[in-house]
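seq:
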Amino acid sequence: MRYNFVFFLELLHPFVEHFAKSLTLKCLPKAGVKLMRLIMFCLVASLAASTARAEILFHDRAFADAVVDYNLISGYNDPTSALGRNDWTADMVGVNQWGSEIGTSLGNGGYLTMEFVDNEVGGSGDSDKDLWVFEIGGIPEELQIEISIDGSSWLDVGVADRASATVDYGVGVDIDQYFTVGNGYDTSTRFRYVRVSDTGNNSYNMFNKAGADIDAVAAIYPLSNQTTSVPEPATLLLLLFGLALLPRRRCR
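struct:
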């Protein structure tokens, strides 16, 4: 699900304001009321800002955690640079070229297989994008994307060609459209592995950065595989909303 960050904060502002008044009415001096309002607003802002990327809400656990297998081009072949959050920025061009610690180049026909350790990839049940690959640079490049439950049997979820560089230089994939009765996959299926491969149809040159360049891979709808759960931002905001509706209690 996509959210506009500014609209998100504007929508929550009345609830934050009401909650602050409910907690501080006749209990704190005026300066305390202002401080409480500031704290509540910062809390909401941090919850949203810490996970917002290109108007898509990414959880902290949404990114691939481990490298399983790879075949990468020499020079930019550190597969671990594609783990964790995306860190390439649009100013890393020209004299400020990105280095091998930022991302990796697949090369002609190269591939990278990653595992989600503390979460898994799942479908949304609709036409929304479920998996996001952060590419590097402004040139659209083809990627063959596959997902797997066990790292052995793979489901091909198509070729992703980023035709637009307006969304954090990445490309999204809707995996639900590939679920069929025949292959047995549905929205309850959890995938732990993702393999991205260069199709061989991209630009290749004498430099070490050739073919598709990968910054990060993230699950838009991450599913926790842990026995204990951590409250998600939406859950915390729902709690805040409920507290804001509680009746005010006068201090004696």
